[in-house]
């Protein structure tokens, strides 16, 4: 038996290619499997107890990792964006990828992805379903607007659209051409269907958010301007364990820090890295747009939300809202490019979210940043 073995797996929906590396002898052992988790675990266990397994995060999810861990096997999932690849390496095969993963794991060069449990993954799926529904509704509205614009039909009832008045006006529009009339009515019906679907999902999200493992964190995050219960639910479930980070590292994890290329005495910073969780970053950037709006005192909705949390959390949230508004106004006064200002506010907002969520999960008193 091998004494120390590192195994890389190249995982696909219907096949898994494995490569086992014995670092004492340099011997490689390869195998290929159908979509059979039991066969994979039996093969891995054949190398003895001193074995570690790695595969890349991907669309196949975390089922294999959970199965191997349940069998007592040390399995990690690698972040694909953090894997080192030579610039001139233009050969990519399943066998080669499995070998590279095993070698990187042996060298300790694998950046691990946190494996969520089944409950957290289910909550994430609910949040992402809501996000997709929101995008579908936006596209449906765009299609209705595009048809009207192409044929010179304009709404003159004000700048705001998709209000009651605008919807009433939409149902009054008709076209003489039967094909065009059918296309317009179908697009309008699809928009209405997507709107009903989104409301149904929002209702379910609110129900689940009120009684789940992240309820306390969700209520705290919703005290910050820009976060509804739906947005707070999404951010809380995507991050999961906030105690993994600090106020300084949460922005880096979410890809909200500038990229950098420095050599010698030259230091150049570029656009943000956009690493990590795309959906969580989207939620923060979307929430950051609100902080530019006038803010003197909490509104009715914010006051209701503040009543759901402890006095210390409420005070911290109000402090964050004031600080973020001041930052957004300062950027505007300096005529900073809006997209850069919004990203900078989102980065600081991530830190404030951490300062609210991490103490709650650790069970420690709220402290300064």
UniProtKB/TrEMBL annotation:
Protein name: IS110 family transposase
Origin: domain of life: Bacteria
Residue ranges of domain Transposase IS116/IS110/IS902 C-terminal in the record: 221-292
Domain Transposase IS110-like N-terminal: 7-149
Pfam families per the UniProt record, alphabetical: DEDD_Tnp_IS110, Transposase_20
Residue stretches spanning the membrane: none
Family matches, as InterPro entries: Transp_IS110-like_N, Transpos_IS110, Transposase_20
